[in-house]
Automatic annotation (TrEMBL):
Primary vitamin B12-binding and transport protein. Delivers cobalamin to cells. Belongs to the eukaryotic cobalamin transport proteins family. Residues 258-334 form the Transcobalamin-like C-terminal domain. Keywords: Cobalt, Cobalt transport, Disulfide bond, Ion transport, Metal-binding, Secreted, Signal, Transport. Interacts with CD320 (via LDL-receptor class A domains). GO terms for molecular function: cobalamin binding; metal ion binding. Cyanocob(III)alamin binds at T51, S52, Y53, Y54, Q55, D95, N144, Q189, L314, W336. This is Transcobalamin-2. It is found in: Secreted. The lineage of its organism: Eukaryota, Metazoa, Chordata, Craniata, Vertebrata. One of its GO terms (biological process) is cobalt ion transport.
Length: 336
């Protein structure tokens, strides 16, 4: 079983944010320190933590927010990875670089590292902010709409929000696209930003003053879309050990409001029954793990990437994406 660095880190951040009674989670902190070390054993063999630099960065950030020191070696590992440009994988560079930059800012601000290392962290954070400003598109988005909140958290945490022109443009882009944040996982990353805060502020929250503002909203039901649509479903395996590139290609008729998950379910019910798939529940929704009996292997860093033809990766998961009539969707076994 892989180390639980990221989930534990998110849990600890969440706990702290809900104003718990005094230090109830000492053993969780000890576990997180243990998992960070476990996670790193992956790097000796593969050159990256067993989970990912994103989770490793979250781990350091959560410990820092809990005012816990980590060995300087643990921090230096992240610094080296950043210098060597190893934080990026696939389209997720901005998310990972931002999480790591937040962890660096926290360690430096809370003086949890020596002065020499603190100076290096300051330089590295500045470099990360520069990269993010450079990654900004003409629409103000940094990376994609879901990584933009992370980039904004860095500008807020470092105080660069006062001077960095990219900040205002990204904030405006966010306001225009708030409808994209429909799941708890994406909301958790954007909400602090809308209040001018970053995850670092969890460390200095004034507890006891929280009014009970968590009242459920009455959601309006989605307008019913009538009619049908047809989606072309393609499965590809470009990896060397696959006997063929294109493993499946078929038109799938579905109701007009169907999500990609509905399309996969409809394909599985078509005769002959030659399409099957599996998903795993995650806080982001169902994650596609297996198609046509081929399982994406975490330890080999493969995953089922989802794309719209000819070659654009989707920015949403299978349950959230609603294909258009006539669209071609590709499930491609890829490496990250
Ligand atoms: C690392 C990562 C991946 C890795 C995960 C593998 C791994 N072992 O680490 C890989 C490369 C496989 C991946 C794949 C995808 N990802 Co991704 N991923 C991330 C990233 C950078 C960190 C996730 C993480 O570790 N969280 C911390 C851990 C502790 O939380 P967790 O809930 O346990 O995380 C697990 C699941 O969330 C799952 N997962 C990762 N991505 C996604 C995406 C979806 C839609 C689902 C349901 C699950 C899922 O893998 C995580 C690790 O086990 C986030 C960035 C972010 N801002 O959140 C994007 C992010 C979550 N991914 C995203 C997307 C769009 C995808 C893909 C749909 C891309 C594609 N077109 O194929 C696919 C998923 C397709 C599928 N098979 O269902 C978006 C989701 C946006 C949204 N609307 O919800 C994010 C926010 C990136 C972004 N800025 O766009 N991802």
């Amino acid at each position: 079983e892989p180390p639980r660095t990221g989930r534990l880190a998110l849990y600890l951040l969440g706990l702290q944010a809900t104003c718990p009674p005094l230090s109830p989670h000492r053993s969780l902190v000890t576990w997180l320190k243990y998992y960070l070390e476990e996670d790193w054993t992956g790097s000796r063999q593969q050159g990256h933590p067993i989970t990912s630099y994103y989770q490793y960065g979250l781990g350091v950030l959560a410990l820092c927010v809990h005012r816990k020191r980590v060995r300087e070696e643990v921090v230096r590992r992240l610094l080296t990875a950043q210098h060597r440009g190893k934080l990026g994988h696939g389209g997720n560079t901005v998310d990972t670089e931002a999480v790591v930059a937040l962890a660096f800012t926290c360690l430096e601000r809370r003086r949890l590292v020596g002065t020499e290392l603190a100076a290096k962290l300051r330089v590295a954070t500045h470099e990360a902010s520069r990269n993010m400003a450079e990654a900004q598109g003409p629409d103000g988005i940094i990376g994609n709409i879901y990584s933009t909140p992370w980039a904004l958290q860095v500008f807020l945490a470092t105080g660069e929000c006062q001077t960095e022109p990219a900040f205002g443009q990204a904030m405006a882009a966010l306001q225009e696209n708030l409808g994209a944040f429909g799941t708890a996982a994406t909301m958790a990353q954007v909400l602090p930003v809308l209040h001018g805060r970053s995850y670092l502020d969890i460390a200095s929250m004034h507890c006891g003053e929280e009014p009970d503002t968590l009242t459920p909203l009455d959601m309006e039901p989605l307008a019913e879309v009538l009619g049908n649509k047809t989606v072309q479903l393609v499965v590809e395996c470009p990896l060397p050990w696959c006997y063929e590139l294109r493993l499946y290609d078929r038109l799938v008729p579905v109701p007009a409001a169907a999500s990609l998950l509905d399309v996969l379910q409809a394909a599985a019910a078509l005769e002959p029954r030659d399409f099957r798939f599996h998903t795993q529940d995650t806080p982001q929704g169902p994650f596609l793990t297996e198609v046509l009996g081929l399982q994406a292997r975490q330890e080999k860093r493969n995953y089922w990437q989802i794309l719209t033809a000819p070659n654009t990766p989707l920015q949403m998961g299978i349950a959230d994406y609603r294909p258009q009539d006539g669209e071609t969707l590709i499930l491609r076994l890829s490496e990250w």
